[in-house]
Structure to design on (553 residues):
């Protein structure tokens, strides 16, 4: 071997450096080629190798050496084509001949940063620890076992309100001949309010999600509203919505989002005169919990024809959103102007609220909203929120947990006597361990009027393969093997929107039963226990003290 070739070989990585190592069985494999065809990362490839075999045959055997050319399935040791452990190869293999195995001794993050770019990943942070929400318990329970409280038989009303709710003494209502009538001469502005289910699907854009995934979510939401009678709503995320949906009667189940990039908003504004239904609300995104202070990013791999048409941008370019609205001087001015302009666009008929990252300054934004009569609420996104593209350093080292941040904001509203007026929407790591109903109930009892979920519904409705050990998590690259977060037709055709819709309905119906099981023994069946913190306890004294709830061990 030439010296230059030896040096080049010395700078290659061994498979022990990779997070997942392919375990391939030569005896079982029939060389059908299915595994190499479905691998979204091109981590495995068919190869031909020469094998030396020693044989001894006959009465007086003497070893003889033969060389044989055989075909194999080989794992690529290029860091740009690393195996993510999605196991799609195992799914299609008819003989169980191949399986990626997690390598706990890997040094992946040491080698992944190439070209001066730190590691960027899709999905949630690498944090297998138990979150604060999973340390909470419901400890205020009825002393009697009462069949009337059974969630399957008792009459329940699990609903919440999106929009500012005026106190009774501020409502422009007068008593006329024994009946209440609206006093139109009072000049009092009546904020628009929507009755919704307390768990909503958070902002995941058409672009971040594949067309089939978004269609499945939309069909599931519509079925829940029109057949099951559950007013579940969904936020569109940044980047606009299809014109056909904007002009349909189903728009009332959706919350269009406007973010700092303004992508897709030209089409929405032009469609307003042709809308036959108002949207449920308008969300103005100023920050994300997974990457606070940083703008959103839809990478060029996902900006294909459909997305370029919806967003009004060229194909194949990165779409970064500025961290803040560049047309505004400060967050206070931005919030005030955007809420005012969006309210005017829909004739003050639609609730408008901002979404921000959970930080130490969240209360400052909240206090400005309290004084704004057109603000319909505040959405707070905690540090455990998932995202389609963020640097590891942002996901692992920045942000504020949702539980304590929400609690601070709710207690601040209590001090001002506004706790029943301005709703708080909490998100970020809800259902991280699968305990969606328990986590949502905990946040409601800490002060949230509604809870927003994103990654959970992807995992539950479309069987997302990603986990906290960096399995899969290539949402940002447009190579999702399930077809959830890709714009590649070869990949998203694997996903059946009807199946996604069925799973969305199943998830919300099961969560509804679990919420009833939690609230019924507390005697709350006709209204949500918002802020009912005396029904919560924590198994950690520091958490209990921070959230101002009881400690139970």
């Amino acid at each position: 071997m030439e010296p230059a070739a030896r040096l080049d070989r010395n700078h290659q990585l061994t498979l022990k450096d990779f997070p997942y190592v392919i375990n391939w069985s030569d005896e079982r494999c029939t060389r059908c080629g299915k595994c190499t065809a479905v691998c979204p990362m091109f981590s495995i490839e068919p190869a031909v190798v020469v094998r030396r075999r020693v044989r001894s045959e006959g009465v007086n055997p003497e070893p003889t050496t033969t060389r044989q050319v055989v075909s194999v399935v080989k794992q690529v040791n290029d860091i740009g084509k690393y195996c993510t452990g999605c196991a799609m190869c195992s799914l299609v293999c008819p003989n169980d001949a191949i399986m990626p195995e997690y390598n706990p001794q890997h040094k992946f993050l040491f080698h992944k940063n190439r070209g001066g770019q730190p590691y960027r990943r899709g999905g949630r942070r690498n944090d297998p620890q138990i979150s604060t929400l999973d340390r909470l318990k419901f400890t205020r329970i009825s002393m009697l076992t009462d069949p009337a409280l059974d969630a399957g038989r008792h009459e329940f009303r699990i609903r919440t309100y999106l929009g500012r709710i005026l106190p009774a003494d501020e409502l422009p209502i007068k008593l006329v001949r024994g009946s209440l009538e609206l006093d139109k001469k009072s000049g009092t502005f009546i904020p628009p309010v929507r009755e919704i289910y307390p768990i909503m699907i958070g902002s995941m854009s058409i672009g971040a999600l594949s067309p089939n995934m978004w269609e499945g979510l939309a069909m599931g939401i519509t079925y829940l509203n029109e057949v099951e009678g559950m007013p579940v709503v969904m936020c569109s995320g940044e980047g606009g919505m299809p014109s056909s949906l904007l002009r349909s009667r189903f728009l009332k189940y959706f919350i269009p989002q406007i973010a700092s990039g303004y992508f897709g908003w030209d089409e929405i504004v032009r469609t307003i005169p042709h809308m036959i239904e108002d949207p449920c609300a308008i969300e103005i995104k100023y920050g994300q919990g997974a990457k606070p202070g940083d703008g959103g990013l839809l990478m060029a791999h996902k900006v294909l024809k459909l997305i370029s048409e919806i967003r009004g941008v060229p194909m194949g370019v990165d779409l970064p959103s500025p961290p803040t609205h560049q047309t505004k001087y400060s967050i206070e001015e931005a919030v005030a102007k955007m809420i005012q302009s969006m309210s005017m666009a829909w004739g003050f008929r639609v609730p408008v609220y901002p979404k921000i990252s959970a930080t130490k300054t969240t209360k400052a934004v909240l206090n400005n909203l309290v004084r704004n009569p057109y603000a319909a609420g505040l959405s707070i996104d905690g540090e455990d929120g998932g995202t389609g593209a963020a640097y590891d350093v942002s996901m692992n080292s920045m942000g504020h947990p949702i539980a304590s941040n929400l609690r601070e904001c709710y207690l601040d509203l209590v001090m001002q006597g506004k706790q029943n007026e301005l709703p708080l929407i909490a998100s970020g790591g809800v259902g991280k361990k699968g305990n969606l109903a328990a986590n949502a109930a905990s946040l409601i009892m800490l002060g949230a009027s509604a809870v927003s979920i994103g990654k959970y519904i992807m995992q539950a409705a479309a069987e997302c393969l990603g986990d906290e050990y960096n399995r899969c998590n290539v949402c940002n690259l447009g190579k999702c093997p399930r077809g959830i977060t890709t714009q590649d037709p070869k990949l998203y055709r694997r996903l059946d929107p009807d199946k996604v819709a069925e799973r969305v309905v199943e998830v919300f119906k099961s969560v509804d039963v679990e919420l009833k099981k939690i609230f019924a023994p507390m005697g709350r069946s006709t209204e949500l226990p918002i802020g009912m913190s005396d029904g919560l306890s924590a198994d950690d004294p520091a958490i209990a003290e921070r959230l101002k709830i009881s400690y139970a061990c």
